[in-house]
Specification:
alpha+beta, 9-stranded antiparallel sheet, about 10% strand
């Protein structure tokens, strides 16, 4: 082992710890690693910009825009609502239908976006059919992952692996390269969920259900403090308008026509102040609005529709690590939080001082028309559809978005096939086809430039660039070859020459699967691909079976709620506990491990 290899292994170990312990945001960690390997001399400074030549992030960005056009045109939402109105209340049939829908769309779009679109639809269906939402949301998340394994554009991991293969001088994957393994895995996984899911997945209540929130809509009152009100001159905290035990919740304060954006403990009530108030409680101590307003001599000017909704904290939310008090939640989002759901526990006391985490579900009261503004902050995944007063997008926008996506896939696929048979025909790469598709949608005004930029998950792109630097360091320092030699040397005496590649495939798939449960799937793939390419040559067999195994295994994270972003999105709304994912996810992991390792050598033989 050279000192370069030892230093690279130390960087890998530190990177693993940083991701597991969440020392910083994933993109910050990845970019720090990129700068670190250059500073340590593991990658020459002149080669640092080579990571930005990789086509994977560009392809992913273009596909984000196409997916955003599909989302904003209502293409997915329309089908989801059609399913909601046509389905019966049969649990297994509902699980099957929503899983198939999620898997199909996730083969072409970012699965996070698919789950975000289908989450309110699924919750609404569960309420209308009196089905526990937990029975449907976990299959929704799992199916979105399985569907992403079916095509090259199904997940960012697939595209990242494809880009890494080109950098390593290996043959890139075609559009449907993964279909022979992804489709059987999807069938096996969905069959397992439909057959055994009703018994394995518990019927848990969401936070609103477990807190006995009977009415999800509530009137909000605009009131005017009269000049002879007993509240005038008093601190707002000392008035009946701050009686949370009585179910009184203050959303907005206006004075002289302007909204007051100060902490409530600094506000003294003045005559003619205006307040937006909700009177809502799950207990029997709720005051009657008319009695409350009469006692404080406040005039009701108008009422607006309010909603008790659940907001799931996203992984890129600006609220992570902050308390409700520190973030001035009420003023910033025009909403009041009633409770916080975390790890199966409802927190209802001293919630203002609880630092928020990824996946926390906030039970909040807000004006119904305010949901759209909350969605625009990109701090939450909504579980209720915003009330959109704007006219719906033209119907032809949905058709144009679908035609564009199909054209991108067909162009890349057909040109790849024709180029293999007729080398004179130019090959159209997926990143070029996707970029042209995204630009076409912009020129046709199916999506605006502002919405296009908002559709791109910039954190993912920056993380990919940083992780490519780690892969480059593993390659240039000889670390990948060293680890491959060590693995072959450790296992060669355990198996015969004929069985060694097969046994190694089973081990590599399992190792990747375990790593992706606790790491980013992209980080796992970037670290494993250089190793398995060298591993194939060390064993004197084709590296393709190992490449496919790592690509698929890096996306099959089912056992832990933090293993995949979509799990965290459904964790709170489903009222799940940590053990629920272990009970359902571990058997699914085993099914994917066994099915994949049995099929891969048949489709991609070790000795082609």
């Amino acid at each position: 082992m050279t000192w370069h290899i030892g230093l690279t292994l130390a960087v890998i170990a530190l990177t693993l710890i940083a991701f597991i312990r969440e020392w910083a945001a994933p993109d910050v960690i990845a970019l720090t690693v990129l700068c670190g390997v250059v500073a340590l001399g593991l990658v020459d400074a002149s080669r640092m910009t080579e990571v930005f030549k990789n086509e994977a992030p560009l392809t992913i960005a273009a596909l984000f825009v196409i997916g955003g056009a599909l989302e904003r045109s209502g293409a997915v939402d329309h089908i989801g609502h059609l399913l909601k109105t046509r389905l019966s209340g049969n649990l297994r049939w509902a699980m099957f239908s929503f899983s198939i829908l999620s898997a199909f769309f996730s083969a072409w779009m970012n699965n996070t976006a698919i789950v975000a679109i289908l989450l309110p639809v699924t919750l609404g269906f569960a309420r209308s059919k009196n089905i526990a939402a937990s029975r449907l949301l976990m299959p929704l998340s799992y199916a979105s992952i399985l569907g992403g394994c079916c095509t090259l554009i199904g997940t960012s991991t697939n595209l990242l692996v494809n880009g890494a293969l080109k950098d390593l001088g290996e043959k890139p994957m075609s559009m449907f390269e993964l279909a022979p393994i992804g489709i059987p895995l999807s069938i096996a996984g969905i069959a397992y969920l439909v057959i055994f899911g009703p018994k394995l997945i518990p019927a848990r209540s969401s936070i609103s259900g477990s807190l006995d929130i009977e009415y999800r809509t509530t009137p909000l009152y605009h009131i005017l403090v009269e000049d002879d009100s007993p509240m005038v001159g008093k601190s707002l905290l000392e008035t009946p308008l701050f009686d949370r035990e009585g179910g009184v919740h203050l959303l907005e304060i206006r004075r002289n026509g302007r909204r007051i954006m100060r902490p409530v403990n600094t506000i003294t009530v003045e005559k003619f102040d205006r307040f937006l108030v909700a009177v809502h409680s799950r207990g029997k101590k709720t005051v009657k609005p008319e009695d409350l307003f009469a006692s404080i001599k406040a005039q009701v000017l108008s009422t607006v529709d309010g909603i008790v909704t659940e907001l799931v904290v996203r992984d890129e939310s600006s609220l992570i690590g902050k308390t409700l008090a520190r973030s001035d939640f009420r003023q910033k989002y025009n909403a009041v939080v009633l409770a916080v759901h975390r790890d199966g526990v409802n927190i209802t006391k001293q919630i203002a001082t609880v630092p928020l985490e990824i996946g926390d579900t906030l039970l909040a009261i807000t004006p119904a028309h305010n949901l759209d503004a909350i969605a625009d902050t990109r701090d939450f995944v909504l579980t209720d559809k915003p009330v959109d007063d704007a006219p719906p997008p033209p119907k032809h926008h949905s058709r144009l978005a679908w035609i564009t996506l199909i054209a991108v896939v067909a162009l890349a696929t057909i040109s790849d096939l024709l180029n293999g048979s007729f080398p004179g025909i130019p090959k159209v790469s997926i990143h070029f086809a996707a970029l042209v598709g995204a630009l076409a949608l912009l020129w046709m005004k199916v999506i605006t430039p502002r919405d296009a930029y908002a559709s791109v998950d910039w954190q993912v792109l920056l993380m990919l660039y940083g992780l490519l630097g780690l892969g480059m360091a593993m390659q240039s320092s000889g670390t990948a070859e060293y680890l491959a030699q060590s693995l072959v040397g450790a296992t060669r005496h355990l198996f015969s020459a004929e069985m060694l590649p097969v046994a190694t495939l089973w081990f590599v798939f399992l190792l990747t699967l375990l790593l992706t449960e606790v790491l980013s799937n992209n980080a796992t793939a970037v670290m494993m691909i250089p190793i398995v390419v060298k591993l194939g040559y060390q064993l004197e067999v084709s590296p393709q079976p190992f490449i496919i195994g790592v690509t698929v295994a890096a996306s099959t994270a089912f056992a832990l709620p933090m293993g995949y972003q979509t799990h965290l999105m459904v964790y709170g709304p489903g009222g799940y506990r940590f053990s629920d994912f272990l009970r359902v996810g571990i058997p699914l992991n085993i099914i994917c491990w066994v099915v994949a390792c049995l099929l891969i050598p048949l489709v991609w033989p070790f000795h082609p």
